[in-house]
Amino acid sequence: MARPGHAWNRRSSEEDEDEEDPLDAMISRTGCAVQHRELQECMAARQDWRHCQPQVRAFGECMARRQRAQE
Questions:
Q1: Buried b / exposed e across 26-37, counting CB within 10 Å, b at 16+?
Q2: Given Cys at both, which of 17, 42, 45, 62 links 52, Cβ 3.0 to 4.6 Å?
Q3: Cβ atoms 66, 36 nearer than 8 A
């Protein structure tokens, strides 16, 4: 159990904004960041993944190519 005054500190929101999201960093390393961004933009605009099927397929195909290349 943590004692009062333990060393854990919550980072400020300013520090959080400067740090890249781990998921975004991982997707960037796959080479599929463009497809992921397009999918995110479609989802933000349409609010329904069913209307974003071309983007879903493009992202899925990119990730599948990446996985096949690693095998």
A1: ebeebebbebbe
A2: 42
A3: no
